[in-house]
Amino acid sequence: MKYLKNILVLSLSAAIFATLRGRRLAVSRYKIHSSKIKGKLRIALLSDLHSFNHGSLHDPQSKLVKAIDDNNPDLIVLTGDIADHIIPHLYTKILLRKLEKYPVFYVTGNHEYKSGEIREIKRFFRDLGAVVLEGVNRKINIRGNRINVCGVDDAIIGAERFKKQLLTCAEQADMKDFTMLLTHRPEKVNLYRQLKFDLILTGHTHGGTVIIPRFFNGIYAVNQGFLPKYAGGLYDVGRGNMVVSRGLSKSSRGLPRVFNRPELVIVDVCEE
Length: 272
Fold this sequence. Notes:
By secondary structure, the protein is α/β, with parallel strands linked by helices. 27% of the residues lie in helices and 28% in strands. The protein has helices spanning 2-21, 62-71, 90-98, 110-114, 118-127, 159-172, 189-193; strands spanning 26-34, 40-46, 75-79, 104-107, 130-132, 136-142, 145-151, 178-182, 199-202, 220-221, 225-226, 233-236, 241-244, 251-252, 255-256, 263-271. The strands form 4 sheets. The chain has a 6-stranded mixed beta sheet with strand order 1-16-2-3-4-5.
């Protein structure tokens, strides 16, 4: 009985430690290579903030903004659920104001649609400097590199509209230039890979909620179920790469994140 009690105490202590540690911001870095890029393109990927504050009450979002500034990205991409359907939008707006010096591109997630305020959310994203992508491509030039930034609304808009937005993005983009797709859901990868995007940036999974180091990259992700294939990280998807953010929320749909810290993702696209 004493042995069992000790095991239970140790297990509970480990779970509490992992949960508390799991609220601290992490920075994950990935590197890919492309013949379409000269030098290096650095992208900061933010997803699934759900209006959480990564800072103090007196200096909201300071830790997240410092982490971004320390990495000096060329552009910032927001792949959905930056705002929430329950938590007020205050900290989302504060973050956007603090990112105004960067080129910022945004696509919606399912929770922004669940809020019933999607028009208002898109409006304040635009007002605060973000480019809202709704099935369109934006061509940008960074140090002589011509880049297509494509983006689609979350698939909650319906299968036909979602596919139409994807096709429109691909049709508008000159695939001779480096082309990235911003989208919320990684499980739709079979649709994405057909359209020859060089880089797909996404989120939605919350890192699979619980990670068991060395064994499981994530236990459960919505729309993928248990032991999700695309919980978080860099994936080779045939014609390009996909990066799945584990998200910036401090909990996962009300459940604690275990060994699964909120993350800012930095993607370096380097010349071959």
